[in-house]
């Protein structure tokens, strides 16, 4: 399954750190957050279905008329500061082989 993921991290957290690099290193962004003193206290996720844009359907390998699921994820640190917003998109066929 192909997924498209976009992650936004506030400059107040990532600025001047290795989080500005495309790949933050072993353990991913959450290990990096911990190393910078940001402990995850809670997360929110919302799932939405929609029809994809043409170029998105092409990148996902979705057949015409196949909807896309978006998972919108926000994590907060111990001070209730949003640490990241991630949007993961994948095709959602009604049947898989």
UniProtKB/TrEMBL annotation:
One Pfam family, short name: UTRA
Recorded GO MF terms: DNA binding
InterPro entries found in the cross-reference section: Chorismate_lyase_/UTRA_dom_sf (IPR028978), UTRA (IPR011663)
UniProt record, GO biological process: regulation of DNA-templated transcription
Annotated UbiC transcription regulator-associated domain residues: 2-89
Protein name in UniProt: UbiC transcription regulator-associated domain-containing protein
Organism field: Streptomyces flaveus
Lineage, uppermost ranks: Bacteria, Bacillati, Actinomycetota, Actinomycetes, Kitasatosporales
């Amino acid at each position: 399954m192909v997924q498209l993921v976009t992650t936004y991290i506030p400059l107040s957290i990532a600025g001047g750190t290795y989080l500005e690099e495309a790949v933050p290193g072993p353990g991913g962004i959450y290990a990096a957050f911990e190393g910078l003193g940001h402990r995850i206290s809670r997360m929110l996720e919302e799932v939405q279905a929609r029809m994809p844009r043409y170029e998105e359907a092409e990148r996902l390998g979705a057949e015409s008329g196949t909807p896309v699921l978006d998972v919108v994820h926000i994590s907060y640190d111990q001070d209730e500061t949003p640490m990241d917003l991630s949007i993961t998109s994948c095709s959602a066929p009604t049947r898989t082989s």
